[in-house]
Design goal:
The mean pLDDT is 95. The protein has a single domain, classed as 3-Layer(aba) Sandwich (Rossmann fold), CATH 3.40.50.300. Helix content is 41%, strand content 18%. The protein binds adenosine-5'-diphosphate and magnesium ion.
């Protein structure tokens, strides 16, 4: 079971959107994918039309014994919904490693959608993960939050494999090209992989969240849907998931 934390210190960088659409694109007959909504704001759970359903991620982290995540409307894609109580978790002991080990054998890939902060939940999720996926916007202000996020992960785990994903990509802007150059330079310095696939700015992606669907279901032929499918192919290779 490959465990991937989807993290950035900044909000609005497409973490929840990416967890949903990448998860939907990677789920298949031979691959069981689990999404875990770790943000007390619960965007991912809303986007699946499953906010308010139980058992939640707080139940998962604070209980022991058998735990069954919820099935979503996408085959082989399950969810542990978010919970406002996640904001209050202050535990010093590692809640994630034992909670994740209870899911082993039932899933091939787990995507953990982290809150945009260095809370206990984010830190523990990152430390218990096999790798971290950091979606970022290609704008100078967003890149500062991105670099800080990478540095913080590197402080805790010098060897953690990190992939950076460019989202809401606007190829025609000079700003985007400048950001690309900075990202390529810093990927060498800070030892992370800049994924080739970029997710374009696409209205269908934004609308799909409001329609409580992944963009793959909402607008299968849209540029956003195609990009998330390419991303799934690239991640399958880089992550070596069967
Ligand atoms: N590729 C995209 N094109 C257009 N809008 C997007 C795209 N990706 C995300 N968005 C929009 O950006 C906002 C923030 O995305 P979200 O995934 O909630 O970010 P985060 O989880 O990092 O806070 C949402 O309103 C979403 O609909
Ligand atoms: Mg989010």
């Amino acid at each position: 079971m490959l465990k991937v934390a989807v993290f950035n210190l900044k909000g609005g960088t497409g973490k929840s959107t990416t967890a949903l659409s990448l998860g939907a694109a990677m789920a298949g007959p031979k691959r069981r994918v689990l999404l875990i909504d770790l943000d007390g704001q619960r965007t991912l759970s809303f986007a699946l039309g499953m906010d308010g359903q139980t058992p939640t991620a707080l139940d998962w982290l604070t209980s022991s014994g058998l735990f069954t995540p919820l099935a979503t409307s996408t085959k082989n894609l399950s969810l542990i919904p978010g919970d406002i109580g996640l904001f209050r978790i202050l535990a010093e002991s590692d809640l994630f490693t034992p909670a994740l080990s209870r899911l082993a054998g039932f899933f091939d890939l787990v995507l953990m959608d982290c809150p945009p902060s260095l809370s206990v939940v984010s830190v523990q999720a990152i430390l218990s993960s096999s790798r971290v996926l950091v979606p970022t916007l290609c704008e100078p202000a967003a890149l500062r939050g991105f670099s800080e996020a990478i540095a913080l992960i590197r402080d805790e785990r010098p060897d953690m494999p990190i992939e950076a994903l460019r989202v809401r990509y606007k190829p025609r802007l000079v700003l985007t090209r400048e950001s690309d150059e900075l990202l390529i330079e810093s990927s060498v310095e800070m030892n992370y992989r800049l994924l080739h696939t970029v997710i374009p700015e696409n209205i269908d992606v934004a609308e799909s969240i409001a329609q409580q669907k992944s963009v793959l279901d909402y607008a299968p032929k849209s540029s956003g849907s195609k990009a998330y499918q390419s991303l799934a192919k690239e991640c399958s290779k880089v992550w070596k998931v069967s």
